[in-house]
Amino acid sequence: MEENSKNKQSSIILALDFPFQGRLERENLLAKASSLLDMVSPHVCAVKFNHHLTLPLGIFGGVQSLVEQAHRSGLLAIMDCKVNDIGATNTAIAEYYYDAGFDAVIANPFVGWEEGLKPIFDVAAKRQRGVILLAYMSHKGAVEGYGQTVRDAETGIETRQYLAFARKAGKWGADGVVVGATVPEKIREIRFVLGEEVPIYAPGVGAQGGSVEAALKAGARFLIVGREIVHAADPAVKAETLRQKAELAK
Amino acid sequence: MEENSKNKQSSIILALDFPFQGRLERENLLAKASSLLDMVSPHVCAVKFNHHLTLPLGIFGGVQSLVEQAHRSGLLAIMDCKVNDIGATNTAIAEYYYDAGFDAVIANPFVGWEEGLKPIFDVAAKRQRGVILLAYMSHKGAVEGYGQTVRDAETGIETRQYLAFARKAGKWGADGVVVGATVPEKIREIRFVLGEEVPIYAPGVGAQGGSVEAALKAGARFLIVGREIVHAADPAVKAETLRQKAELAK
Known about the structure:
2 copies of one chain form a homodimer.
Chain A: H1 2-8, E1 12-15, H2 23-26, H3 29-40, E2 46-49, H4 51-57, H5 59-72, E3 76-83, H6 87-99, E4 104-107, H7 113-127, E5 130-136, H8 142-145, E6 149-151, E7 158-160, H9 161-172, E8 177-179, H10 184-194, E9 200-203, H11 212-218, E10 222-225, H12 227-230, H13 235-249
Parallel strand pairs in A: 1-2, 1-10, 2-3, 3-4, 4-5, 5-8, 8-9, 9-10
Antiparallel strand pairs in A: 6-7
Helix pairs in contact in A: 3-5, 4-5, 6-7, 9-10, 10-11, 11-13
């Protein structure tokens, strides 16, 4: 990601998300997504996919072609599947996404290590791909889980869930953590826990109220932007504006 | 589910899961899944799908045909997607799965209510479908998240995460909770919190070490069984044996 971001001189990751589409609209969805990706590609360093596209289009014979398109444009492709299942299922999930060409998957550390996320890290190591972990999400309800006070099982000391997750991300060798751009003070705390080694990916800029400058100043390395670009009158111009704003704020 | 279970005289839910399949093997996967579903249908009350099938086959033009097959055989279809995203994404996920015919989706309460799970419950209410919440999973690592000690945000009192989840399931009007058959003592505690109103779905019987009798005696209403049936020499016989065992233990 670091190399890619330097080559493209961009810290922006496009979240290629479209709202729910009815049966008829779905026919044009692949073409629509491909055309948007094409327009925005020069201004971003990676593209993040979510179920907005994998559910209506499928992966093989569907989203896989967008992943290949992203790679041809010099972008990395991240699958935001927020994996949180048992090990055997997580293994199957990771194998399928990596098989379709994704460079990294996003997983939820809440599921734990043994028979949980360890199998995903094993598949990732075997296939030389990435695993990015959630640390704090960008929506209001995140305070209930990510923001809750928990008692650390090893030390017995009270801590915040997101700090416990950040420590696990460091210990497990995650390739990045996700922290909402809507909570820059938590980006700062997590950055302090993780140091320079594990980059912070911050979603929630624009539509959700997060600011490019605040997130980067707090320590985010990449900004994930969806609706702000996807629904813009001119997505390429919007992406380029955000790219420049981020380069200035770095 | 209650009516379906009575009609079919079965408390067993088939988890129609196959391990990761390479490109060539994928061609036969739909036929294989359909044939297994056909064999096992008379002995179960519902079928639970996971990414084991939705990723390789896709939903529309793929798993959707299995959902329709399940309905023709008098079974309900549950999508075990363990949703845990922000509201806008959760809405799209729920809409697509319900659109494909699923009767219920499984979601993770860790994501919280506001801009989290509320939008899913809204879609479910609009479409008259179900939402089942995770309370405690069946794998070892579950102790890290589901088993952790948390401080209740409202009361300030320390509690276990899975009990907090069970209370939320009651408050939010969930149509069921998932509790691993591997932890019957937790089934008992959660049953005590939730009473008769919210049925407990227990996965982890067989391959993961859970017992039919222990899970039902502790208060589980439905048993979710995957590998134990799917990899059996005779899946129909295995499903019927489990069905009878469960009817006797109820």
